[in-house]
Design goal:
The protein is built from 14 helices and 23 strands. A hairpin with a 5-residue loop joins strand 22 and strand 23 (about 450-455). It is of the alpha/beta class and about 500 residues long. It binds flavin-adenine dinucleotide.
């Protein structure tokens, strides 16, 4: 049996993990990436690089992050994140729809895969800034999200690209794959357009890792529903559903939540697609410490339903459903010190005022009188007897409101007040291709594996429904990318 030839479509995290792993399996590997090299890396490059991983305690984290210093270990309570907890979080936030076999593979392989990435030159560090608070002089991690790639998403792309190139993977940019070469015996390559010319690249196996359809307004409206064409795109402009459509054309089975997506509160004045110089900082994720109001000045969601890791991905949709597709996040001086860095960027849509009345008047598009009445009712409903604690779900809540805030409810009464305008920013779509959880091979509509076709990353369906535990997208791409690459290398 000669050396197999694997074509990987896309050059984000899932694709590069697939390429590295196929190369490790002895295949000749070509990566075809649609974007020019200057804006390479897909959504991965826009991400913070946070990766959800199961770990038993600090000893296991030390294997992943050998350069943790003794001081860091002394000053930090890393806790643990057992595989059961990861599995349960995924099941809970997806309302028990996540495919248990895909979820099990993801959870069980999370640490082995990150260790493999570390062996390939990816450096991981603790996410002190966003996922830990200081309690009595010690950092305490919360919400199951503890590590990120050094340098965030751009750092991850850089180290994976370097590793792939070093291992002999050929990466072509500006190369848009338009079709799978397919016959009765399976997939044998791709049709690709590069520099205005179309050619065919033959292969023993193709790994599709070219993202969802979040960057196509037309497909968003078609699958996610009315209004989704109006969402801003948080990341790359290139994930227009090509891989999904070409796989469906050769008989692949669709799976998962095609009307669902990951979408967050995103600066109201952000551009249509992500801006690499701003990255993920258009997001506004500190709403659990304040309140959110719509054009009527009314609250519309329980801002404190859970840690932000478990609510942020579904609240973009709730904002999109508000009149005018916008909301304002409001904070008083008791909590502004807790606001994440993204609240202090230059490109922020922010107003401040000494009183709530003046704030309401400055919040564009908002019924100021309605806002003042809403805040009076809200402040009166806060149960101040329970201590505020941002590290735990503190149960400090309101009672008697149409929509109560069930944790971290503080009165909003200490000026000057700050308000931030947000709209819906879509991150990625949840619907995708059906794969075999143990091989990442694409399954057809007769439920049979398609010879020579594998998939990983955003375009795989079945894991995420309605919502998503923060940091799982990258881990998902890495785990199934690695598996897809290994099995693709065996195809011939
Ligand atoms: C602002 C932002 C912040 C995020 N933060 C995090 C985070 O901290 N942690 C986390 O886990 N997830 C995060 N995510 C989600 C995460 O980025 C994605 O889930 C993950 O990167 C998807 O990886 P992927 O390899 O499947 O797709 P991508 O990284 O998007 O790669 C797909 C690639 O395919 C290419 N492509 C598309 N069509 C074609 C074609 N026809 N031919 C060739 N190439 C094609 C695209 O150009 C792109 O480079 C974030 C996303 C965004 C937008």
């Amino acid at each position: 049996m000669g050396q197999s030839r694997v074509v990987v479509v896309g050059a984000g995290n899932a694709a590069l993990c697939a390429a590295l792993s196929a190369r490790e399996g002895g295949a000749e590997v070509v990566v075809l990436e649609r974007a020019p090299s200057q804006v390479r890396g897909g959504n991965t490059a826009f991400s913070a690089g946070a990766m959800r991983v199961a770990y038993s305690g600090v000893e296991e984290l030390q294997r992943l992050m050998p350069d943790l210093t003794p001081e860091e270990i002394d000053n930090t309570d890393f806790g643990s994140y057992p595989t059961d907890a990861f599995f349960d979080d995924l099941a809970r936030v997806t309302e028990y729809r996540a495919d248990p076999d895909l979820a099990d593979t993801l959870v069980q392989q999370s640490m082995p895969t990150l260790l493999w990435m570390a062996d390939n030159g990816v450096r991981f560090v603790p996410i002190y800034g966003r996922q830990a608070f200081k309690v009595e002089g010690r950092f305490t991690f919360w919400g199951g999200l503890t590590v990120e790639a050094s340098g965030g998403g751009p750092g991850l792309v850089e180290s994976l690209t370097k590793a792939a190139e070093k291992s002999g993977v050929r990466i072509e940019y500006g190369a848009r794959v338009t079709e799978l070469l397919h016959d009765d015996s399976g997939v044998h390559g791709v049709r690709v357009r590069q520099d205005g010319a179309t050619r065919e690249e033959s292969a023993d196996a193709v790994v599709l890792a070219c993202g969802g359809f979040e960057s196509s307004a037309e497909l968003r409206a078609r699958y996610l529903g009315p209004g989704w064409d109006l969402a801003r795109v948080r990341g790359t402009m290139y994930n227009t559903g090509d891989g999904l459509q070409m796989a469906l054309r050769v008989g692949a089975s669709s799976a998962g939540n095609w009307s669902g997506c990951h979408a967050v509160g995103w600066d109201r004045n952000a551009p249509e697609f992500g801006d690499p110089s701003v990255g993920d900082s258009f997001q506004k994720h500190s709403y659990p410490w304040g309140v959110m109001v719509n054009a009527h000045g009314r609250r519309f969601v329980d801002e404190g339903a859970d840690f932000r890791n478990y609510t942020y991905a579904k609240y973009g949709r709730v904002i999109l459903e508000q009149p005018g597709q916008f909301a304002w996040q409001v904070f008083d001086q008791k909590v502004t010190n807790l606001l994440r860095d993204e609240y202090r960027i230059r490109e922020v849509s922010k107003v401040t005022a000494p009183t709530l009345k003046e704030l309401g008047e400055r919040m564009e598009g908002v019924d100021a009188a309605g806002f003042v009445a809403e805040m009076e009712a809200y402040n009166a409903a806060v149960e101040t007897g329970t201590e505020f604690n941002p590290n735990v779900k503190d149960g400090r809540r309101t009672t008697g409101l149409a929509i109560d805030k069930t944790n971290w409810a503080n009165t909003v009464d200490e000026g000057p007040f700050e308000a931030y305008a947000v709209t819906c920013g879509i991150t990625f779509t949840f619907g995708g291709l059906r794969i075999d959880p143990s091989s990442a091979q694409v399954i057809d509509t007769d439920m049979r594996p398609i010879p020579g076709l594998f998939a990983a990353g955003e375009l795989v369906g079945g894991l995420f429904y309605f919502n998503y535990p923060g940091g799982t997208g990258l881990t998902n791409g890495s785990v199934f990318g690695r598996i897809a690459g290994a099995f693709a290398a065996e195809a011939s």
